[in-house]
Write a structure and sequence with these properties.
Blueprint: H1 8-20, E1 35-38, E2 41-44, E3 49-52, E4 55-57, H2 61-71, H3 80-88, H4 98-110, E5 115-118, E6 122-125
Antiparallel strand pairs: 1-2, 2-3, 3-4, 5-6
Length: about 130
């Protein structure tokens, strides 16, 4: 355990020891809900699959995780930068049109009734 009084060198040594320790394991992200269900839409988080009207919808990784992120925060208005940072795991400084393109593609695949554009702010899941 690190404390505020530890020196930087001591902290560095502890981090390096933890990284080389074979007993340390990384726990993968798991959604608190294995299945998110909305009218005519089902998101199965563990399988990373989406069903619209009972039919599987083929999605790219970015499409799936963007939809999942929005669906896990229903009615929240999330900016393109927030979505980009959460899904792409990169600095959103240069997200450009990436999020808008993914949202456009999602709307074509699952319909227009699930993701709402909030002009000047971002997107909101309304499923």
């Amino acid at each position: 355990m690190l404390t505020v009084s530890d020196t930087e060198e001591h902290i560095f040594n502890k981090v390096m020891a933890a990284l080389t320790d074979d007993t340390v394991s990384v726990i993968p992200y798991e959604s608190p809900q294995p299945v998110l269900t909305f009218p005519n839409l089902e998101i199965r988080t563990k399988e990373q699959t989406v069903y619209h009207n009972g039919i599987p919808v083929p999605l790219t990784n970015h499409e799936f995780f963007t939809l999942l992120y929005l669906a896990q925060h229903p009615s929240w208005v999330l900016s393109k930068e927030q979505i980009y940072e959460a899904v792409w795991k990169e600095n959103p400084e240069h997200c450009g049109a990436a999020v808008a393109n993914v949202v456009y593609s999602l709307r074509r695949k699952i319909g227009n009734g699930y993701i709402e554009t909030v002009v000047g702010s971002g997107y909101r899941f309304v499923g």
